């Protein structure tokens, strides 16, 4: 079995300051980020740096093209991604289209795990779909995991990316493409989420909880980056493309209903997930845990994410179901759904 990861991973509070040691030989650096982080004052201060901050949530092909133009204009020789999954995925796409220069990733949220995956998701606005690309060339060279950066996340974002992290662990663990090494990281991810997600949400200054969730996100990325995601992700991408629901939130609102559907496909694996979460190994207990977790973290229902859009939601369910199935991720699910079954899950999650 093959296992891919960044060649160097640094973790611990304050490790973001080590970035300067990795770019000493760089003559032209592209920092990929977003407007919020640009204004936050947290951006790395590097000599010979060019900043591309026009990355939107669910980055688009237009974002990639704009960043690529800056890279070409300045003959950049290093790319630094600073932000959540959107800047990281955009940076991966820019390098993919540019040339193989070093990619250093500093995540500011504890959620996507993109800092440790050979995967990117870019939105094709003309087709209304999010396209996932998987290639070993997309793996970052260096990942710097500094929990201090996630300590300022507001509660809603902490909740959404936290449940996203848990989803990564669960889906990697039950995926048809799982293997021994991916399982080890998936288990650690699930356990850390169980132990520290609520604590990180309750008190953002709890650095022990923040550190644990930052590592959970890393383990989740290493897990699904080497196995795969499954039905939750397949169904969440259309929600992001068509309703602009943030990726972590769309995973969170779908996780309970997808679990209800998928459980019979591999009861043994899901029962082990339940044990890792400290509950009895039954579907009922697992659903209660996931529903209670969302409730405790004040994760909204899908209908609340699409306020006043129920008619449009119903109209788009057939397209979303087809797009979800076409993404390939549902094929890795313990129970492979039909189009009509995906449609039913969307309605149940509403």
What does this structure look like?
There is one protein chain. This protein has 350 residues and is α/β, with parallel strands linked by helices. It has 2 domains: 8-150, Rossmann fold (3-Layer(aba) Sandwich); 153-349, Dehydroquinate synthase-like, alpha domain, CATH 1.20.1090.10. It has helices at residues 19-22, 35-40, 61-73, 85-97, 155-174, 180-202, 207-226, 231-243, 247-262, 267-276, 283-296, 302-305, 310-326, 339-349, and strands spanning 8-11, 29-32, 49-52, 78-83, 103-107, 119-124, 129-134, 142-145. The chain has a 6-stranded parallel beta sheet, covered by helices on one side. Strands 6-7 form a two-stranded antiparallel sheet. Strand 6 and strand 7 (129-134) form a beta hairpin. Helix 3 (61-73) crosses helix 4 (85-97), helix 5 (155-174) packs parallel to helix 7 and helix 13 (310-326) packs across helix 14 (339-349). The radius of gyration is 19 Å and the shape is globular. The protein starts with 7 loop residues before the first strand and ends with a helix. The model has no long low-confidence stretch (mean pLDDT 95).
Secondary structure: elements and pairs:
Elements (H helix, E strand, L loop, with lengths): L7 E4 L7 H4 L6 E4 L2 H6 L8 E4 L8 H13 L4 E6 L1 H13 L5 E5 L11 E6 L4 E6 L7 E4 L9 H20 L5 H23 L4 H20 L4 H13 L3 H16 L4 H10 L6 H14 L5 H4 L4 H17 L12 H11 L1
Parallel strand pairs: 1-8, 2-3, 2-4, 4-5, 5-8
Antiparallel strand pairs: 6-7
């Amino acid at each position: 079995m093959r296992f891919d990861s960044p060649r160097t991973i640094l973790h611990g509070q304050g490790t973001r300051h080590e970035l300067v040691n990795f770019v000493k030989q760089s003559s032209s650096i592209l920092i990929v980020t977003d407007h919020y982080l640009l204004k936050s004052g947290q951006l790395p201060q590097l000599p010979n740096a060019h900043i591309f901050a026009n990355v939107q949530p669910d980055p688009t092909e237009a974002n990639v093209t704009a960043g690529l133009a800056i890279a070409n204009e300045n003959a950049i020789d290093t790319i630094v991604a600073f932000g959540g999954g959107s800047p990281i995925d955009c940076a991966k796409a820019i390098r993919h289209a540019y040339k193989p220069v070093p990619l250093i990733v500093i995540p500011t949220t504890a959620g996507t795990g993109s800092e440790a995956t050979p995967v990117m998701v870019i939105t094709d606005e003309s087709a209304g779909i999010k396209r996932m690309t998987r290639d070993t060339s997309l793996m970052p060279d260096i990942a710097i995991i500094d929990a201090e950066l996630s300590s300022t996340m507001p509660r809603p974002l902490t909740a959404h990316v936290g449940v996203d992290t848990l989803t990564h662990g669960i889906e990697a663990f039950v995926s048809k493409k799982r293997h021994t090494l991916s399982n080890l990281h998936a288990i650690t991810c699930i356990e850390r989420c169980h132990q520290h997600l609520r604590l990180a949400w309750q008190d953002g200054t709890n650095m022990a909880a923040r550190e644990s969730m930052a590592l959970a996100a890393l383990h989740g990325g290493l897990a699904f980056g080497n196995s795969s995601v499954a039905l939750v992700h397949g169904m969440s991408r259309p929600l992001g493309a068509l309703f602009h629901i943030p990726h972590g939130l769309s995973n969170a609102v779908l996780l309970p209903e997808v679990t209800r559907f998928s459980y019979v496909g591999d009861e043994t694996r899901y029962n082990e997930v339940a044990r890792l979460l400290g509950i009895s190994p039954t579907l009922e207990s697992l659903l209660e845990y996931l529903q209670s977790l969302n409730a405790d973290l004040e994760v909204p229902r899908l209908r609340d994410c699409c306020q006043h859009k129920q008619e449009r939601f119903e109209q788009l369910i057939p397209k979303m179901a087809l797009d979800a199935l076409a993404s390939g991720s549902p094929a890795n699910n313990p129970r492979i759904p039909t189009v009509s079954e995906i449609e039913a899950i969307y309605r149940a999650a509403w």
